[in-house]
Amino acid sequence: MDLIFSNLPTLFITAFFAILFLQSGLDKLLDYRGNLDYLSEHFKNSPFSGSVRLLLPTITVLEVLTGLVSAWAFLQVLLTGQSTAAIFSPALAGVSLLSLFLGQRVGKDYAGAASLVPYFVVVLLGLWMIKM
Q1: pLDDT tens across 84-102, in order?
Q2: Phi, psi of 54 (to 5 degrees)
Q3: 119 burial type by CB count under 10 A (0-12 exposed, 13-18 middle, 19+ buried)
Q4: Domain extents for the chain?
């Protein structure tokens, strides 16, 4: 039990990113057409307008990968107490969020971009806590 409490911050960070990115990635997979239609409309007047068909699968793979790595890291910490994989959770989350942030900014959805900032703060905190 002491092992779990000493690793609580890492468990919370990895669980947070596993939930966030698995849900987001699976939503894109399960409603691919709806997401494609929405994003095509969203980016119709941006430099990404002709790239949505390429960018949607790219961000979907990135989000699912981030979620799976985060779930793997969570299980590793929970079951073994080792956190060797845990640093990859916030690192991949940072890449995923920066990709989403870029899309929101280029698409001139400034409110959407601003809504990603708290998640990015969690990335930075996670990197700092896990590195300690």
Answers
A1: 889 999 999 999 999 999 9
A2: -90, -40
A3: middle
A4: 2-131
